[in-house]
């Protein structure tokens, strides 16, 4: 299958990548520059990312926005992490971006948040009103949650355990590299998707399945320990605000009820190649238990 817009996007202007040091932002900036597309890596510390031009950017400091937008004609929008109402800062920025000449915006949301839903769902609703060219990426849970700095990864390394309130529910875990690849296509192809895209990996896996794959590939025993919603909420509340802990535990409960048990072909359709599997990711990142 040929990727949508394959070979297109020649002569595009600079893409501003917000959250450029994060999981998908860093990968998107790197893939853009590797493909020869000019990119500006926006972050609070203006750190260089894989050849992208660094620029200081803080969602909560409008004084940093004009310089970040100078000469930009498209933007990858990663809302501020942990903000329960990101529309309050993201929408004014997007309106300013449009007035400054930005033609296309690609927003990172989540599979669990529909248009008009809470938090970033409000930004999703407004995006096509502000921009004629747009896309909303709604990835499922990141595979990198088990290999990076996430609570699951830490627990795997220190205890050989994954604790969730998801029961036997399954999730179409997706590789962040694939999310970035879709973002690059949505940003650079001649025609914007002008829709939202639910992104998953090639199969839906339970947390028991995840533990089994890690055990088989690494040789280190890992087990899934199911918790109740209340146990998960209270455990998380020792490490974050109670409201956020309750939301995350609630997302696990939704998984247990089947909310994320789905697989889409969005990665294949946008990039022209199959989504990567979790086993392939673990084989690639054997250091996850190091």
TrEMBL record:
It holds the Pfam family NAD_binding_10. It comes from the Bacteria. Residues 19-114 form the NAD(P)-binding domain. PANTHER family: PRESTALK A DIFFERENTIATION PROTEIN A, PTHR43162. This is NAD(P)H-binding protein. It comes from Streptomyces osmaniensis.
């Amino acid at each position: 299958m040929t990727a949508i817009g394959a070979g297109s996007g020649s002569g595009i202007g600079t893409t501003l990548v917000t959250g450029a040091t994060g999981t998908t932002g860093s990968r998107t900036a790197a893939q853009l520059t590797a493909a020869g597309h000019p990119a500006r890596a926006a972050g609070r510390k203006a750190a260089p990312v894989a050849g992208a031009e660094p620029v200081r950017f803080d969602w909560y400091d409008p004084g940093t926005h004009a310089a970040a937008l100078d000469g930009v004609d498209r933007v990858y929008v990663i809302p501020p992490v942990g903000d329960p109402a990101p529309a309050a800062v993201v929408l004014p920025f997007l309106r300013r971006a449009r007035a400054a000449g930005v033609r296309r915006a690609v927003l990172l949301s989540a599979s669990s948040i529909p248009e008009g839903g809470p938090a970033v769902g409000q930004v999703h609703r407004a995006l096509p009103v502000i921009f004629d060219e747009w896309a909303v990426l709604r990835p499922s849970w990141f595979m990198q949650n088990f290999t990076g700095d996430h609570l699951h990864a830490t627990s795997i390394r220190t205890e050989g355990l994954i604790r969730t309130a998801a029961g036997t529910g399954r999730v179409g875990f997706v590789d962040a590299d694939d999310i970035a690849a879709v973002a690059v296509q949505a940003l650079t192809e001649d025609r914007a998707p002008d829709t939202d895209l639910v992104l998953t990996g090639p199969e839906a896996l339970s947390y028991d399945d995840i533990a089994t794959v890690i055990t088989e590939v690494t040789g280190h025993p890992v087990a899934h320990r199911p918790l109740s919603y209340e146990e998960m909420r209270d455990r998380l509340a020792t490490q974050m605000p109670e409201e956020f802990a309750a939301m995350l535990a609630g997302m696990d409960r939704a998984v247990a009820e089947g909310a994320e048990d789905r697989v889409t072909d969005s990665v294949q359709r946008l990039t022209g190649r199959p989504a990567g599997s979790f086993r392939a990711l673990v084989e690639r990142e054997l250091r996850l238990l190091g």
